[in-house]
Design brief:
Elements lengths: L2 H21 L10 H8 L3 H14 L2 E4 L3 E4 L6 E8 L9 H15 L2 E8 L2 H8 L6 E4 L9 H8 L5 E4 L10 E4 L1 H14 L4 E6 L5 H16 L3 E6 L8 H14 L7 E4 L2 H13 L9 E5 L14 E3 L2 H16 L8 E4 L2 E3 L11
Parallel strand pairs: 3-4, 3-5, 5-6, 6-7, 7-13, 8-9, 8-10, 10-11, 11-12
Antiparallel strand pairs: 1-2, 12-14
Helix pairs in contact: 1-3, 4-11, 7-8, 9-10
Length: 359
């Protein structure tokens, strides 16, 4: 570990200590001086001054000319900056546009201004985050599995609240909001089972990330509990590859091997359903008469304008509401708001799942 890394960690820890200290002081109370903090925490003047500057930028404290720093307990409104990945899909509908609109709407209702910042990958996101000046940060990660413990620690040490949106970070006191993907998989399986399907396919059309594994496990275990037959169509997809194209190729390969052996197919993401549906239509497979379809995700407006797709709705607007609720709870010092919130998904009953029990 380099000396520079050690200095950065000390500075991050000092910011966290001082932020907690400010939260336990009264509004307008004088904050300890630079000299006092140097002696108490045994750090350099430069480290203290940088920490105080970060706290001041966040609104936790404010400076008075020649008087020092004072605690600000009324910085509940302000600017929320959200970091969103740039869309890598060639669709007419944008995942990110919907997410930005949801967060902006809920922020405004709760008295916050909102600004969206776009990034290419996680490394770019962390680079941009260092220059952000805001009262709170929302981070929609491309791949939460790739975030290191050191990076999470750095985010948690920031003087403003940081909330991970649409992902789960299994670290104590890490703020995050996500749809319950295990329940989502269970709902998809249950919907097919109650409609009489017993030979069911699963299109593994997203990279093997934790969020995907939970969705798949919920689906598979529900089918197993009811004795249904499962066939997995593996797209062999890696992070960064286009899921719609991989889904299209996988369906084409499956249909090349002979007639359908399944009556229903769960495609684990809305984006990859675009490619799967394209392949099925090119091969003249009738939906839902020959094959029932269900997916996870329901954008607003919908991806599919010419077919009423049955889907597990991850309730993105509710995720945005819960994210802002965590931020608001932080400023109001509420002990009733959990650090991690899971949103229960819901089934949208479209017209792509055939009821075999009525046939």
């Amino acid at each position: 570990m380099t000396e520079q890394t050690l200095k950065t960690r000390r500075a991050d820890k000092l910011v966290q200590f001082l932020k907690d200290r400010a939260l336990n002081m009264s509004d307008g109370e004088r904050f300890p001086s630079v000299r006092q903090l140097m002696d108490e925490y045994m750090v350099s003047q430069l480290t203290v001054e940088k920490a105080l500057a970060r706290l001041s930028e966040s609104g936790c404290i404010y400076a008075r000319y020649r008087s020092g720093y004072f605690v600000n307990r009324h910085h509940r409104s302000g600017l929320i900056v959200s970091l969103f990945p740039q869309d890598s899909f060639n669709y007419n509908i944008s995942f990110t546009d919907e997410l930005v609109a949801n967060v902006a709407e809920v922020s405004a209702k709760n008295g916050f201004k909102h600004k969206a910042v776009y990034y290419k990958d996680n490394a770019d996101a962390f680079a941009k985050m260092k220059d952000i000046k805001a009262n709170a940060i929302i981070f929609r990660s491309i791949n939460s599995d790739a975030i290191t413990a050191e990076q999470v620690s750095w985010l948690m040490s920031m003087p403003v609240p940081v909330v991970f949106m649409n992902c789960t970070i299994p670290i104590e006191n890490c703020r995050s909001v996500d749809s319950d993907n295990t329940v989502g998989g269970m709902l998809a399986a249950s919907n097919l089972l109650i409609n009489g399907h017993r030979k069911i396919g699963l299109l593994q059309s997203e990279p093997n990330l934790a969020v995907v594994r939970r969705r798949v496990n919920g689906f598979v275990k529900t089918l197993q509990a009811h004795g249904a037959e499962l066939e997995i169509l593996d797209c062999d997809i890696k992070a960064g590859e286009p899921s719609n194209e991989k889904a299209y190729d996988a369906i084409m390969r499956y249909l090349d091997n002979g007639p359908l052996k399944i009556s229903a197919l769960f495609v684990i993401s809305e984006g990859s359903m675009v490619g799967a549906l394209k392949a099925l239509r090119e091969r003249k497979v009738s939906i839902p008469d020959e094959l029932s379809l269900i997916t996870f995700g329901r954008s607003n407006p919908p991806f599919f304008t010419d077919i009423d797709m049955t889907a597990v709705d991850g309730c993105r607007h509710k995720i945005a509401e819960a994210t802002i609720r965590i931020i608001k709870g932080y400023f109001e010092e509420s002990r009733d708001i959990p650090q991690y919130i899971e949103i229960d998904p819901e089934i949208y009953q479209g017209k792509t799942v055939k009821n075999l029990l009525k046939s």
